[in-house]
Amino acid sequence: MDLLAQIKNKAKTLSQTIVLPESHDERTLHAASIAAREGLANIKLIGNPAKITSDFERLGLTNLDKITIIDPENYSELPKYAGIMAELRKAKGMTVEKALGELKNPLYLATMMVKAGDADGEVAGADNATGDVLRPAFQYVKTLPGISVVSGAFVMILKDESFGHNGIMVFADCAVHPDPTARELAEIAVATGKTTRAIAGFEPKIAMLSFSTKGSASHAMVDKVVEATKLAKEMAPDMQIEGELQADAAIIAAIGKKKAPGSTIAGEANVLVFPDLQSGNIAYKLVQRLADAEAIGPVLQGMAAPINDLSRGCSVSDIVNLIAITANQAAAK
Hints:
The structure is a single chain. The chain is α/β, with parallel strands linked by helices. It has two domains: 3-142 and 306-332, Rossmann fold (3-Layer(aba) Sandwich), CATH 3.40.50; 151-296, Rossmann fold (3-Layer(aba) Sandwich). 46% of the residues lie in helices and 16% in strands. The chain contains 13 helices and eleven strands. The protein has a six-stranded mixed sheet with strand order 8-7-9-6-5-10, with helices on both faces. A five-stranded parallel sheet has the order 3-2-1-4-11, sandwiched between helices. Helix 4 (78-88) crosses helix 5, helix 8 (182-200) packs across helix 9 (220-235) and helix 8 (182-200) crosses helix 13 (316-332). The longest helix is centred in the middle third of the chain and has 19 residues, at 182-200. The two termini are 25 Å apart. 50% of the residues are buried.
C-alpha cells in the first residue's frame, strides 16, 4: 500500500472535521464530494447554501447530504467568534463590530471555526494567495507552544527505496521561512519530526544539513546549523537529530560512516532539514524533477491547529489528498 493510501485509510478512522472556505471554486466542490463519499473527514463548506446546492446539481456531484454547509450570513456562532477575535486583538484595536465585518470573509470564518474547536483543520488556497490564507491563521490560531515559526514540509516519495524510509523522505523548510535563526531552525527540525510521525508514520531520523560535516568547514552559516542541532536536541530529546551533515553524508551509508563515524543517523537520514528556504526549495524541486519523485505538500507545520495552503494551480486530487493529510495532522496535535 502506498503512502497516500495509508494516509487516507488512517483519515477514515479519525472522524476529524475539516472546513473548506472556498465553495465558489469548482475543484473544491468536487473534492468535498469525494472526501465525503470516501469518509476522509466530516466536511464543512462555507458559502451560500442555495448556490452550493445549485452548483452541486449543475456539476453532477453527490454526497451533499454528508456535508455541512455554513452560511456566513446566518451562522449562529458568529457572535461567539467575534467576541474571541475582539479579545485576542484588542491591543490592535479590534472590536466586536470590526470582527463581525472580517467574518464575512470565509477565510477568517474558517480560521475562527478552527480556533473555537468547531473544526479540526482547514484547507484553502485553491483560489486565494498564501498570504491571505495564512494571515488570519497567524493572527488567531497562532503557533504551537514553544514554536515561533511556521514552516512547510514536503513528503518526497522516491523510486529508489534504498533512500530514507523505504524510499520516503521528508524535506523542510521548503516553502515558508527564508532565513531562520538557529533557534527557528531548531523549531523547524522538531516540527518536521512531528509531521513525519503524524503523516508518514515512521520515526524521524533528522539530518541538519550544511556544506560541512562535523567541523570539516568553518563559517558563520555552519555555526548556525551546529547551534540549531544543539537546541533541537534539547527541545526534543525523544527524537534522533544529527548535525551538521553534508547531504551525501546524511543519505549515503558509506559516506556517512567515513565522514561522521559513530553517528546513528549519518547515511540513514529520512528527514532533511535545510539551513534556509533557498536551499530547501531548490533541493526538493531538483529531486522531484531529476529523480522523478512525487512531492506531497507543502504541509504547513508549527501552527496550533492544522491550516494548510494549496497551490492555486492545484487539482481536485491535490485537495482531496490535503484534506486527508490535514485530518492526520489534526488527530496528532
